[in-house]
Amino acid sequence: MTRTIRNSSRFSAALILLLAITRSVGSDAGALPSNGPALFSKFKAESQVSTPTCVANLKRPNGQCIIPRGGSTAAASDSVLSNTAESLKMVGIVGAWLTVCEGISKTAQEFWAEAERTKFLLAGAVAGIVSRTFVSPLEVVATGQMVRGGNKGMIRELAEIFQNEGVKGFFKGNGANCLKVAPTRGVQFFAFESFKKRLVVWKKSSMGLPEDADIVLHPIERLIAGGFAGMVASSMVYPIEVVKTMLTMYPGKYNGITAAFRGVINEVGYKGLYAGLAPTLVAMFPYVGVEFMIYETSKIALETLLQERSIERGDSSEGMEVSLPIIISLGLGALAGAAAQTSAHPLDVIRKRLQVQGINGNPVLYKNTFDCFSGVAAKEGMGALYRGLGPACVATIPGTGIAYITYEFMKRVLGLSSV
């Protein structure tokens, strides 16, 4: 399409040039003598001389010029040269502009066609923002119960938040949460897909299979890929997780995300931005690993089953992709999220306890992850390590489901596929 536009523009410019020359010559045709091509050739040669006495050297017997310099023929020559120059300039400008536009368009198309990493990051980021905003009220309640403790029910917590802070209380810390979850989910999905592809390449190489051979990853391999993906993503955005906890627990103290960053640094130093990182990394391996493993393993099994039944009915042929209904994908995501949250919840409680100690007057009670784990279990019982699991699961179940259906939708939009 771009090449056609460029050729048409060049043809139009050439036509303009031809018309300009024709009009200039035609308008003064009567000023030319009638003795044919030879005299016209002389006129063309003489018109290029800087200061001629007579045009085409045409003189009367007494030596007087028939057409003095500056006459109609000279004007015609100047007009021809002027129009020619302008037309050539236009051809050059149009050609250069089309070349630049074509280069920019081609570069953008090539980048977008090959930018698989960018697309996975974008798909994961959108999925994280949509899902986390949807379940923000439940996230607020879960965070409060994990940090403060207590035995208030979820409905009572929600009612108190609404009574004291209004609707905005359900979304306190959501800005920081989205700022955290967008890169976290983006990196998680991107890293997960990258690790899976590396596993596939390694398995083909170790088994001596060709590059186009079909390889199916085992559930344990998906768990390992998801676990490392979760650790990589969490380590990259952990300071934002600390800020989100501060904004959720103390909404009136900090005037925005930047103020919360400065507040944490002023109170406990830069190390406060990484308080609780160790249990987070430990928790992320089973949390994200279990989530990805359960979702993808179940999804692939159901798609294979639906495809086999569709082939038996004659509705499709072998090799055709079968997409799960949205409600099924939502259910699988919810199941994966609930299992992941339950497996990693004790470490999540420890992480949040470590994040808030030493800030806003909270005492420093624990030295490290193991000290916090044993201290909470000894003082409050093992049940304290699962406090907040109810609202956390209630938030995780729809949140993870929404994240996965959003991710699948973005994959279809961006033309992505998984192994």
Written account of the structure:
The structure is a single chain. The protein is built from 13 helices and no strands. It is mainly alpha-helical. The model is unreliable at 1-5, 17-52 and 70-77 (pLDDT under 50).
Characteristics:
Mitochondrial carrier fold; 73% helix; 419 residues; 2 domains; globular; mainly alpha
Q: What Rg is obtained from the alpha carbons, in whole angstroms?
A: 37 Å
CATH architecture group name of the largest domain = Alpha/alpha barrel
Helix content: over 70%
End-to-end span in angstroms?
35 Å
CATH topology of the largest domain: Mitochondrial carrier fold
Quickly count the domains. Answer: 2
Q: What is the H-and-E element order?
A: HHHHHHHHHHHHH
Give start-end ranges of low-pLDDT stretches. 1-5, 17-52, 70-77
Q: Please indicate the percent range of residues in DSSP E strands (runs of 2 or more).
A: under 5%
| Name of the top-level CATH class of the largest domain | Mainly Alpha
The helix count comes to 13
Shape: globular
> Which class best fits the helix and strand makeup?
mainly alpha
Name the CATH homologous superfamily of the largest domain: Mitochondrial carrier domain
Largest sheet: none
